[in-house]
Amino acid sequence: VFNSRTMKTKIIFVVAQLIYTLVTILPTPFLYSSYRFSCVYICIIFGLCIWRGGSYYIEVFSEKYKLKFVEIEKQLEKQESFTGEEEHSDEDHELFHHIADAINEAYENECMPELSDNDRAIVLQENDMDIDADEHHNNDAKDSDITPDSEKSWEEITTNL
To answer: What is the chain written as a DSSP string?
Structure first.
């Protein structure tokens, strides 16, 4: 147990201070007499300072950098909790349908290159009829069933269109 009033504690402090003082004063004559030794000593001190400063920089500022992403993630979670999946704007739905139409068109051009324009038009009309039948069948379903945020795959979405 540490007690600053006892003689033993005072003697230990004085001896430790004497050793520390001698260790720090002892290299001074060698540093003063040798230019090369003093340059090496100063370079070592400089290198240690750079090392400690760099370590501090990496440790502290990397944590601050990580915290930015945590804060952004929390803000995104708050926004997602305020806006439900059902509250997508009409522009989002319109954009999604344009993208789906473009995918369908690319798929049709890729899958039916050997068909003539008349045959391709017939196939497209049949697909439109299938889409109309599906729309009437799923009349009770909400528009939010097929959104960019839904769990369905692109193949399911494009085949349903």
So the answer is: ---TTSHHHHHHHHHHHHHHHHHHHTTHHHHHH-HHHHHHHHHHHHHHHHHHHHHHHHHHHHHHHHHHHHHHHHHHHHHHHHS-TT---HHHHHHHHHHHHHHHHHHHHHH-TTS-HHHHHHHHHHHHHHHHHHHHHTTTS-GGGS-TTSS--HHHHHHH-
